[in-house]
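Human: We require from you a standard protein entry with sequence in single-letter code and fold as tokens, and nothing else.

Assistant:
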Amino acid sequence: MSAPSQYYVPEQSHWPIVATIGLFLTLTGAGTIMIDGRTGQDATLGWLMFAAGLVVMIYMFFGWFGSVARESMAGLYSPQMDRSFRWGMMWFIFSEVMFFAAFFGALFYARFYAVPNLAGDGFHDMTRLLWPEFSANWPLMQNPDPDKFPGPKQVIEPWTIPLFNTVLLLTSSVTITLSHHALRADKRKAAAGWLALTIGLGLVFLGFQIEEYLVAYNEYDLTLKSGIYGTTFFMLTGFHGMHVTLGAIILTVILVRLIKGHFTPDSHFGFEAAAWYWHFVDVVWVCLFVFVYVM
């Protein structure tokens, strides 16, 4: 079907309201879980809110993106609409860059400013009186007050699971690029195969990250309560794991659409947007590997 000559304006939708409700329940539930866990209270209400929020979000994703897919298949989108989608995806990825930049900023601030000052560097001589035996080392294995905040016994070695996960994600960037090239050449089976392999690599990555977390918590005492290193470690790697999970779900949806014949060699921005997001997740992991595990 030929593209319409005028800019397409979709009809009024309830999906933004549904998304707002889902985000509210999810974030409020997650915050309640953290607060109740910290104070030792029953976190059942928090988990219920969090679960309800996830259900609402899943419902919203299926409904909203399903509507967009149907409108695209109906030929309602003009080239101007395509540019709007591209700009929207670029701004979304930029917002994700700023999201991780905040956590990397917290890591750098703690490592290069806060921890040295707690050890008495600069003009903060009072800290020498409070914690005379504290020394600034990174990763921080011994906190200023180890009786109240014991540090971890050990940290994750970068040349084990983290290195293997890095190879997995870098390989997945190659496979999704090969899938894109195959789609542009109208080789649909090859495109689907490479995309399925990309999803598989992402799932293997998540499996190894779960194994890493189990080792950290059960053997190394590296937890969210083990000091600033544990906090920054799990916030950065945990949120990245959530993004990998979301990316794998997005790629699975794209794979189903690809098999159903929704994309053509010249019109497949849904595929491109998913590939952009996956490449972004891979770049974030490379930064994580260097600044969290290695340095």
